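Summary for the steering committee. The consortium agreed at its last meeting that each partner would contribute one worked example illustrating the joint modelling workflow. Our contribution is presented below. We chose a case with several input lines so that the handling of multiple components could be demonstrated. No manual editing was applied between input and output; the record is shown as generated.
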Amino acid sequence: MYLFKRPWYPLCSSKKENAVISLRIHADGIGGIIILNKQAAIPMKRESNARKVSYWQIAGKSMKRHWQLYLLVIPPLLFFLIFKYYPMLNAVLAFKDYNVIKGIWGSPWVGFKHFELFFENPLFWTLLKNTLLLSGYLILAGFPIPIILALMINELRGNRFKKFVQMVTFAPYFISTVVMVSIVMLFLSPRLGFANVVLNYFGLESVNFLGDPGMFRSIYVWSDIWQTAGYSAVIYLAALAGIDPTLYEAAKVDGASRFQKIWHVDLPGIVPTIVIILILNVGNVMAIGFEKVYLLQNPLNQVNSEIIATYVYRIGLLNANYSFATAVGLFNSVINLILLLTVNGLAKRLTNNSIW
Amino acid sequence: MTIQLAGGKAIKESKGDRLFLGIVYTILILVVLAVLYPLVYILSSSISSPAAVTSGKVWLWPVDISFEGFRVLFSRQEIMTGYLNSIMYTAAGTLISVTLTVMIAYPLSRRSLFGRNVFMMIITFTMIFSGGLIPTYMVVKDLHLIDTRWALLIPNAIWVWQVIIARSFFQSSIPGELLEASEIDGCSDIRFIRSVVLPLSKPIVAVLVLMYAVGQWNAYFDALIYLRSADLFPLQLVLRSIIIQNNSSGGTMDAMAMVQKQQLAELLKYALIVVATLPVLVIYPFVQRYFVQGMLVGSVKG
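What follows is the complete predicted structure of the assembly.
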């Protein structure tokens, strides 16, 4: 799933009194918005006839009457077919030896040759390890922090300061990946970088942070947290705002302390949201963003920074080894899909929360 | 401890609670400083003198204010080209994306559209599975879009997430009565969209415009894989080559000029970051306002 930053999904639905509140969350990437969508659970009137007619008759009628709507849908649908579904067909490339002259469909079938080559390649384990360690680290460190941040922001009573904190922590989200990596490089630069100036001030040796493979994951993860924690916290803040106020009154009457209130009211109230976000994060471990890793990569830290996505780019587009790169990419997509389905199924069984 | 039940307003806090709140405030102030500091530092560096930046004299506020970095920046051809390209891509890309998104989102919000759930499934499936980098690249190549401006505007024009939020806005915020009334008056669907739906949908269109615009302005990946000619590069790609790959055009010169050039190159990086981020951060307060609106989409007029 390289072309998408990280996928986003419609999120949890929970029945509450008479209203269906569905909270949809964008996991990460560009342009996320949360919607608290309260729709009265009144059965909607059907625009079609009440008479019992076959589906196709309804379809025909609807098309005749609303042909303009169907016309409008065509260009966007074509977009999805051409740029999203046709590539899925093109993925048969993974089972062929690509030949420029014969094209994708004329190239000879080779079965699982490219997959076998990949699995036998000693790089396979390194790539898998790097991908999983990087995203595992990101989840372990990056997942709890926005929750804590949201719980803390939620405690603030002054409206001004609350808004200010939210605005400031949210801001880095709008910085582009290139600029983000540029900032990281300037701050960590071996000679004049801020981090080394501070180290020198305390009499310590300069460190070439980006040249040290051991530092790579920490740099990636913590700069990511710096950039997205405020954004992710908004999701939890929205969930916190939706907690039944009578619960707080009850807690007050019972004389709960602030911490007890957080522990017994706030946290349980946002558990469904937490579970959903966790599913999305775990379901995306293989789809860790190409963009930032690629920019942070250099020959010195490549031992730890080469992940499947960057490898596909290098092999496929730079070395023009299309079939092999497609096989590697397909392997990644399939594993990711399986992971997502598994985690979703587990969460459904264990907590009754799932993304669909 | 006094408890005021009816108002629920005044409640005397215990010592522990005040301590707890004190800790929360302290941590959040530190968080705010940690987020703001790099941003202020870069802004300050960009308007300091080259010598002050490279000798590490800048800590927080600008030292020997000079706009040398920006002067150099605006005199370099590739940066200006990149800037203009990015403006062009952002404007055109946003227009295309928003139009296409509304074109699919509105019909999908109508119950009379037969098979809309199937359409919706077709669209959302692309969020969890994709053909991958190379197969997509092949499609773009087959369409002869490689190394054309269209490669940045079309292949990622619609984001599924935007379709979902736009659709749920239309579903919850366009009253069914309006549709019924206009149908009785014999109003066509297109006309209904033009004269009823769009005027009522300004908040969601604003959200779409801002999100697509920020995304397009910040994007570099499509440009990296689809573009070859430097005169088509957006600013982000130019930025990458100057800051991350450290390509500053060299040449033989005496030591003094060399040092100056290096200092200037360093300064240029800060100025570039400022110039590339400023447009987004300037509109950010507005974006945030619409974010809140986006969050409340549907919840007000359920």
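The two ends of chain B are 41 Å apart (CA to CA). Confidence is low (pLDDT under 50) at residues 1-10, 296-302 of chain B.
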